[in-house]
Amino acid sequence: MTLRDLVVIRLGVAVNLVIGQVAAVLLLPVFLDTIGTVLVAALVGPRAAIVAGLTSQVLNAVLSGNFTWLPFGLVQIVIALYAALAARLGAFRRIATAVPAGIGLGIVAASTSAPISYFLFGGVTAGGVTAVTTVLRALGASLPVAVAAASYATDLLDKSLVFALVAVVLRSLPRQMAVRFRMLAR
Amino acid sequence: MIGYLPGRSAVHRAHPYTPLALAVGIFLLAFAFRTPGAVWLVVVAALAFAAMGGVLGAVLRPAALLAIPTWVLLSVLHGLLGGPPHVALGPLLFSVPGGERALVFGGRVTAILLAFLTVLATVSPGRLVEAMTARGVPFGRVYLLVSTLTVVPRLRVRVRQIVDAQQCRGLRLGGSPLARLRALGPLVVPLVLSALAEVDEQALALDVRGGSMAGGRTALDPPEDRAPDRAVRWVMLLAVVAAYAARFLGRGP
């Protein structure tokens, strides 16, 4: 890994950690906290994206004090691998391809996070997701179904938005800047 | 939430890897056990760890702030919405097996929070960096963990500046969900592009400071790794291995 890769990873992690502030300003029910990981995957590659995702998970826990999020580091690895594959297949070239690819990531991410949430924490994790789980449970859904449905509902919107935003960022990169990134230069 | 609190306790004086190993051990033990009694023994161990570090009072408040919402949600999800048999708690029916599950999950969360908040309060970041450098941890990993925390406040300020600037240009932050979704682009894209514009400059700054040099680095004041430190880490490792072995053999609590 080059020094340049290291700096991109660091910026990706920082973006992951502060982007929630933007979602909060707009009162949107999304996290967007994987945008840096997806961006690093699209600019540098899967290995750097995994490092960015795991570092984000650790530092998020350090900054918030909530270390129960650590097992969800596995979701960051899955996201990094999926995003790098999507970038290699050209999913970020147009928003029309980025959004469906993001929905695919939402399914993959929710399929990874829901079992962690259910088996390790009894379905109680982030406030918004747990609120949806509780409503579904009160409506008569079994706990595994409620946890899975809540994860899919939140992740599909969140990850499709993340992919769309990364596609917009990559399209907005000036050419002389874009060619300096390994994955884009291909 | 909580930062390093200087002190003279045994945990403060220990090699930084020792409290980290204890916290990771408590984390793993919390998931190795399945009965409320065993999980809450791990919580007691986490409380003892915080008390040994002289930070119990400082750690309890943030741990409670983070754990109480989880307890409430667990009580609703597993207790009030759980299956039979139920016991009457005033006008409410509370599931007995659901309550037991809530105690297990709530205990795990509490133990993890107490253990890692104790690490945050007792391990000096500077000593941790020295310990990692002395152990030959690659420069990149140390740089990512420590240096990123210095970028975050700067980026937070930039988010506020971008929000203000875009509002001056007429961007509306309120309105329907669709209107708010449309506002995401004008806020996120400048933030990410401005961060990417700094990459070359920062890589150069890192290079002139020797970031690309091969070979080991010398720690100026590496913390001493004494025999008791190593013994504590080995005991924790053995306890975790024993707990998981018992669990997989079907004899664990």
Give a short overview:
The complex is a heterodimer of chains A (186) and B (253). Chain A is mostly helical and 186 residues long. Chain A has helices at residues 3-25, 35-43, 46-64, 73-88, 95-121, 127-138, 143-172, 175-178, 182-185.
Return the string of H and E elements of chain B.
HHHHEEHHHHHHH
Principal-axes geometry of chain A comes out as globular
| Termini gap of chain A | 18 Å
Oligomer status = heterodimer
- CA radius of gyration of chain A is 16 Å
Count of separate DSSP helical elements of chain A: 9
According to CATH, what is the topology of chain A? Arp2/3 complex 21 kDa subunit ARPC3
Beta content of chain A? under 5%
> Biggest interface: chains and residue counts?
A-B, 60 and 65 residues
Fold blueprint:
The complex is a heterodimer of chains A (186) and B (253).
Chain A: H1 3-25, H2 35-43, H3 46-64, H4 73-88, H5 95-121, H6 127-138, H7 143-172, H8 175-178, H9 182-185
Helix pairs in contact in A: 1-2, 1-3, 2-3, 2-4, 2-7, 3-4, 4-5, 5-7, 6-7
Chain B: H1 10-13, H2 17-32, H3 36-52, H4 56-80, E1 86-89, E2 92-95, H5 96-122, H6 125-134, H7 139-168, H8 177-182, H9 184-197, H10 199-208, H11 227-248
Antiparallel strand pairs in B: 1-2
